[in-house]
UniProtKB/TrEMBL annotation:
Keywords: Glycosidase, Hydrolase
Glycoside hydrolase family 31 N-terminal domain ranges (all copies): 62-232
Protein's recorded name: Glycoside hydrolase family 31 protein
Membrane-spanning residues: none
GO MF annotation list: carbohydrate binding; hydrolase activity, hydrolyzing O-glycosyl compounds
Gene Ontology BP, a term: carbohydrate metabolic process
CDD domains: GH31_glucosidase_II_MalA, GH31_N
Domain Glycoside hydrolase family 31 TIM barrel: 275-598
PROSITE patterns attached to this UniProt entry: GLYCOSYL_HYDROL_F31_1
Domain DUF5110: 710-777
Highest rank taxon of the organism: Bacteria
Entries under Pfam families matching the protein: DUF5110, Gal_mutarotas_2, Glyco_hydro_31_2nd, Glyco_hydro_31_3rd
Length: 818
């Protein structure tokens, strides 16, 4: 090792030089470089206040907060004074009585919980984290540092960690790159990225949260800073991972694993989970820019019913409005919106309308007048209004970071809700402005009382818009669950909305990318996500569209959408055989709806993602780091989309365990790749042994028919496997008062017997009592089935060798005996 590096002063100088090279930051006022970076010195003292520890080098201070047993927060105050605590991502830190302690040794201070140690090295202020086995999971490579911002005040803040040779990185939301982010640098600055390319960055959302996986052990870093931020995962320097921001506080949460699932779950414990969506929102959605006039909307919806292709959501894009003015209707195209929405509802369609943030400057337009009178629109720093051109022409923009503005905005939906509109689609909320891209930096925001410029508010603008929408709808719809979707957002947006990945392209590359983006969003705390099926711009052929429908069947949010200048894009637009296959998959979506809904509940209640890349299943398997096609949908169904034209078969990796091919019931042992035929009619789909997969009968829309019988597909296992099945009213918030039913199944098999046990929790009673069992993979011929002590009379051995029987009561214990 270089002798000089042992001298802390020389080391610091060397690091300063390196860092300046690294970040290339010019003085924004003079345009000259370099601005002097300052680094933490050595630790002079420590002070404790409750669960917070304050370390100082004499001037700068570092706060270490024990958030939970597994989460530690670090904050830096360059001049010793911390900013007031406020975060849009983390609504409140729940102080719970955790056990923790502070130790001092010759070289370091150590704050320890039962699970994690946070070390602060005395000589250079390096912060590191380790587990109870003294395994260091995360460590500084350079002390935390900063630069003064001459123009705006405050600091550019930097944190640089070591990056290990085989460390992989996941997360950051919708980034358009390979699943493993290693070797790349990313920026977070919400951007309208029409027809984005592979590796284009930044995109629509800011999720400054990543998961590191090193030697099979995972941890997470959530850098809760809304300014423009950058993450570098060993790109500039293979040995370093850095993150920095153009302002605000260096504030990050270290989230302990060791499992990736733990990290995601704990990230959700900070930022919240997605509320339960209305059940219909898990159905199929049809969208287009735009369906108008009214006759077109009626023709499209009729097209679904005539062809018996299920559909729940129908969208109205910007052309339903009068001159693109939000909260108005174009009466030429839509003379009687109330009747239209009502007729659609009677036919099972829920109407979702688009809303943009730009409000047309027009004194004869009530929304503008009200906003102007109440001073709700954003202003420039010298007090002019922020104006920009968007669809309606010259616009001003509500400051959604002001709680009073959010309240007002939420109320504006009153008329739409009265009309029966069931959901709101929030677009252009990066915010996007024609020409300029977005707002200038100097625009001021109220920021819930913690005022700041657009530099601070830009990345949360969209999230606060959809928050206003969601909260407003929730009030207006009384106890009904609203459906909202947003394009832009920041960490925590999942408390208010689902998302789509924005303006993608009808290409095979985008199908592949969309699959990665949905998995990545799921791991990044955005569970309810989907892509524009078929691709927004450009023309898919029938094959690409069908392959996309097949992927979309297993996206938490399933919507086809297309730009206005493209050919018609309904599931039947490509003729046969495509229509029939599209129908079959959309039907599958509806059959598996109770499974998806249960998985959603698991997310809502426990913070698990809905889609899980195989690396989350088996993080110790190094080859999984590069696997990004196959994923599990919940924990029982493995999906592998077909991502190339003309592909007649493909390789699929099955994680360890036994899997059943969904189409053939053939069993395969996992822990290896298998080759699966992929004619256009199917994609590789596998069910985990021991799973109980509930199925509803196919319906044309949610609630079309009363459910009389539920099918339970039970897959044989030699081990004990748990499954569960969640049900409730599907449209109210009664689940918050425990009005739901969580059924838990335990399946265990041997040579001559298969046992299924059921237990229940919750206060909801489903209306049906009939179960149709389908037992798959029994290794013996069943002679009898005994349910709660009674023998079942009629056993049917089907041609495909599955065993079926029915039972018309809730059950506790089933034995299937040889
Ligand atoms: O400037 O409302 O991403 O889904 O159809 C384009 C029209 C505005 C962008 C959205 C897209 C939507 C389109 N919008």
């Amino acid at each position: 090792m270089d002798e000089n590096l042992l001298n802390p002063e020389l080391l610091a100088n060397k690091l300063i030089e390196e860092e300046e090279e690294f970040h290339h930051v010019n003085n924004p006022v003079t345009g000259l470089k370099p601005i002097v970076k300052k680094y933490l010195g050595s630790v002079a003292s420590v002070e404790q206040k409750g669960n917070k520890f304050y370390f100082t080098d004499g001037e700068a201070r570092v706060e270490v907060t024990v958030v939970t047993d597994e989460i530690i927060r670090v904050r830096l105050a360059p001049h010793g004074v911390f900013l007031e605590e406020f975060s849009y991502a983390v609504p409140k830190l729940q102080p719970k009585p955790y056990v923790f302690s502070l130790h001092e040794s010759e070289n370091e201070y150590r704050v320890s919980t039962n699970t994690v140690n946070c070390h602060i090295r005395k000589k250079d202020f390096f912060v590191s984290f380790s587990d109870t086995q003294n395994h260091v999971t995360n460590e500084d490579a350079v002390p935390m540092h900063w630069e003064e911002n001459v123009q705006f005040g405050g600091y550019y803040v930097f944190c640089t960690k070591s990056c290990h040779s085989e460390e992989a990185f996941y997360g950051l939301g919708d980034k358009a790159s390979d699943l493993n982010l290693r070797g790349r640098r990313f920026k977070n600055w919400n951007t309208d990225a029409y027809s984005f390319n592979w590796n284009q960055d930044p995109l629509y959302r800011t999720i400054p949260f990543y998961i590191s996986l090193n030697e099979g052990i995972a941890h997470g870093i959530f850098f809760d800073n809304t300014f423009k931020s950058t993450f570098d995962f060993g790109s500039e320097d293979r040995t370093r991972t850095s993150f920095w921001a153009d302002g605000g506080e260096l504030q990050y949460y270290y989230i302990h694993g060791p499992h990736m699932m733990d990290v995601v779950k704990r990230y959700h414990s900070l930022t919240g989970t997605h509320p339960m969506p209305p059940l219909w929102a898990l159905g199929y959605h049809q969208c287009r820019w735009s369906y108008y006039p009214e006759a077109k909307v009626r023709a499209v919806t009729k097209g679904f019913r005539d062809r018996k292709i299920p559909c729940d959501g129908i969208y109205l894009d910007i052309d339903y409005m009068d001159g693109y003015r939000c909260f108005t209707w174009n009466r030429k195209y839509f003379p009687d919106p109330k009747k239209l929405v009502k007729d659609l509802a009677a036919d099972g369609f829920k109407t979702v309308v688009i809303i943009d943030p730009g409000i047309r400057v027009d004194d004869n337009y009530w929304v503008f007048k009200e906003g102007k009178e109440k001073r709700y629109f954003c202003r420039r720093c010298d007090d002019y209004f922020m104006e920009g051109h968007v669809w309606p022409g010259r616009c001003q923009f509500p400051d959604f970071t002001n709680p009073e503005v959010r309240e007002w905005w939420g109320g504006l939906f009153d008329e739409l809700v009265q009309l029966g509109v069931a959901g709101v689609w929030n677009d252009m909320n990066e915010p996007a402005v024609f020409g300029a891209g977005t707002f200038p930096d100097d625009v001021r925001h109220q920021y819930d009382g913690f005022r700041g410029s657009h530099r601070k508010a830009h990345n949360v603008y969209g999230m606060q818009m959809v928050r206003a929408t969601y909260e407003g709808l929730r009030k207006l719809m009384k106890n009904k669950r609203p459906f909202t979707i947003t394009r832009a957002g920041y960490s925590g947006l999942q408390r208010y909305a689902s998302v789509w990945t924005g303006d993608n392209v009808a290409s095979w590359e985008h199908l592949r990318l969309g699959n990665i983006q949905c998995q990545r969003l799921s791991m990044s705390g955005v569970p309810f996500c989907g892509t524009d099926i078929g691709g927004f711009s450009g023309e898919p052929d029938g094959e690409l569209f069908t392959r996309w429908i097949q992927l979309g069947t297993f996206s938490p949010f399933m919507r086809a959408h297309s730009a206005g200048d493209t050919k018609e894009r309904e599931p039947w637009s490509f003729g046969e055989p495509f229509t029939a296959i599209n129908r079959k998959f959309i039907e599958l979506r509806y059959r598996l709806m109770p499974y998806l809904y249960s998985t959603f509940w698991e997310h809502h209640r426990y913070g698990f993602p809905i889609l899980r890349p195989v690396v989350m299943q088996e993080q110790n398997e190094i080859n999984n780091q590069a696997r990004q096609d196959e994923f599990t949908y919940g924990d029982k169904i493995l999906v592998c989309p077909v991502l190339e034209p003309g592909q007649l078969n493909r390789r699929v990796y099955l994680p360890t365990g036994t899997w059943f091919n969904y189409w053939t019931n053939e069993q395969s042992e996992g822990g290896q790749e298998v080759v699966v035929p992929t004619p256009l009619e199917t994609i590789p789909l596998f069910i985990k042994a021991g799973a109980v997969i509930p199925e509803y009968p196919v319906m044309q829309y949610v609630g079309e028919k009363e459910i009389e019988e539920v099918k339970l597909n039970v897959y044989f296992t030699e081990h004990e496997v748990n499954s569960f099945f969640f049900e409730d009213y599907g449209e109210t918030f009664a689940y918050e008062q425990d009005i739901y039913l969580e059924k838990k199944f335990i399946v265990a098999g041997k040579d001559s017997i298969l046992t299924i046990q059921q237990s229940m929790e919750g206060l909801y009673t489903p209306r049906y009592e009939n179960y149709h069992f389908n037992i798959i993979g029994l290794p013996f011929k069943a002679s009898k089935v005994i349910i709660d002590g009674k023998e079942v009379k009629e056993l049917i051995l089907n041609e495909d060798k599955t065993l079926s029987f029915k039972f018309s009561k809730n059950f506790k214990h089933i034995d299937i005996i040889k």
